[in-house]
Design the sequence.
């Protein structure tokens, strides 16, 4: 197993994808322009692998050290030059992602597949920033990546059948269950999930119930493993707001209008787990 994967972005999703790919036997280069982000990403991978090793959950009798050795780091997209698959996992920002895709298009070999882990942005629009739209796909992993089973594979307007087939094969090799959908705002996952989270925020804003009550009702009454407000905190309230704005703008339906309380939380810097406070509090 000698294929090479480049992951652009060392944040929560990026380092999770890098770990998952390395565990599947890929040689991985994790790329980020911020050296501190690479350090944090590697530390998170080391911690995650250590926990999995303690529980005997590393597949194929692998060691944490052996998996870690398959992950290299770099500070520029040029490091993707020898990759067979490039996965972009940067912040949910259209301009930034288009810039990364243009750079990856220049750096990578002509046959290399370019994938985005975006949770809402149009794959078709990202593909338009490249000279290889047939080889651009969506590869939407779920958080936390090493644990969650699904990869939502998004077919852009010009994604070739061969590109989709190859993406499904990569996701399967990484131990995931790929599900192919067509390019549409929020795809399937967030087009359904985000309105539920948004409605939970409206319930909180209107005083229908407090955060604990809302989450408990959805957990115990609907068999959800996590309440919608706690899930929003895990995702990041800024990310939730961005996705809802995409849905509202691109689908033109007022039912996707972000709750004002969500906007106020983001404006206050209460972004969820990553800031220590969202709809719930997370002591350091």
Sequence:
């Amino acid at each position: 197993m000698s294929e090479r994967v480049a992951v652009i972005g060392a944040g929560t999703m990026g380092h999770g994808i890098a770990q998952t790919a390395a565990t599947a036997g890929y040689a991985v280069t994790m790329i980020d322009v911020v050296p501190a982000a690479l350090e944090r990403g590697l530390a998170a991978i080391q911690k995650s692998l250590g926990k999995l090793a303690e529980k005997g959950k590393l597949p194929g009798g692998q060691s944490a050290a052996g998996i870690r050795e398959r992950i290299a780091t770099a500070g520029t997209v040029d490091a993707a030059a020898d990759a067979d698959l490039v996965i972009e996992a940067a912040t949910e920002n259209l301009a930034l992602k288009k810039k990364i895709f243009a750079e990856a298009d220049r750096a990578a070999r002509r046959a290399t597949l370019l994938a985005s882990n975006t949770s809402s942005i149009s794959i078709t629009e990202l593909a338009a920033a490249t000279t290889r739209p047939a080889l651009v796909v969506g590869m939407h992993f779920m958080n936390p990546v090493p644990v969650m089973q699904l990869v939502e594979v998004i077919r852009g307007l010009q994604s070739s059948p061969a590109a989709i087939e190859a993406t499904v094969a990569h996701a399967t090799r990484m131990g995931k269950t790929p599900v192919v959908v067509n390019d549409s705002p929020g795809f399937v996952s967030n087009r359904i999930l985000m309105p539920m989270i948004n409605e939970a925020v409206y319930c909180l804003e209107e005083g229908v119930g407090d955060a604990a009550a809302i989450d408990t009702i959805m957990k115990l009454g609907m068999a959800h493993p996590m309440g919608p407000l706690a899930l929003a905190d895990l995702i990041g309230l800024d990310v939730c707001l961005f996705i809802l704005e995409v849905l509202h703008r691109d689908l033109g339906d007022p039912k996707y209008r972000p709750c004002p309380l969500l906007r106020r939380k983001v404006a206050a810097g209460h972004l969820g787990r990553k800031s220590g406070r969202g709809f719930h509090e997370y002591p350091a």
